[in-house]
Amino acid sequence: MDIETATRFCNRWLPAWTGNRPDRLIEFYAQNASYQDPGLSRPLTGRKTIERYFRRLLRANPRWVWEAEEIFPTPGGFTLKWRARIPIGDTEHVLFGLDIVELEEVITRNEVFFDRSVLLAEAQSP
Q: 108 vs 41, 92, 93, 94, CA distance in Å?
């Protein structure tokens, strides 16, 4: 994939993570897609399973915002370094992470990597 195609895809895909719109977000994923993030004990497979997870995730985080920092094209997709602004209570946390994205018009594989320790500490604070 070339950088222009990957950038155009990210410019459409990343805004779909904001605003609690799981129906819009799931349209970027193939029927047989695989999705993994640090909050999951194992990868999710299949669009319906991923959509159920996205519904819970986006409902809990309607105001977070994801932005591309760097995009590294690969033969079957790209690796994305991202920045997320995640409001929790009165505090906005800024996290950085990476996604491995493989696609055939839509995403077939999405593996997400980031350090959850800040979010876990916030969730455990009184």
A: 19, 31, 29, 27
* CA–CA distance, 24 with 19 (Å, rounded to integer): 10
- pTM of the entire predicted model: 0.91
Contact (Cβ atoms closer than 8 angstroms) between residue 99 and residue 111 = yes
List beta partners, residue 49: none
What are the structural domains, with CATH classification, of the chain? 3-124 (3.10.450.50)
DSSP labels for 17-74? Answer: GSSS-HHHHHTTEEEEEEEE-TT-SS-EESHHHHHHHHHHHHHH-TT-EEEEEEEEEE
For 70, the token pair is 């760097």
What is the token pair recorded at 95? 């996290």
The region, left, alpha or beta by phi > 0 then psi within -120 to 50, assigned to residue 46 is: left
Is residue 79 within 8 Å of residue 69, measured between CB atoms?
Answer: no
pLDDT tens per residue across span 19-29: 999 999 999 99
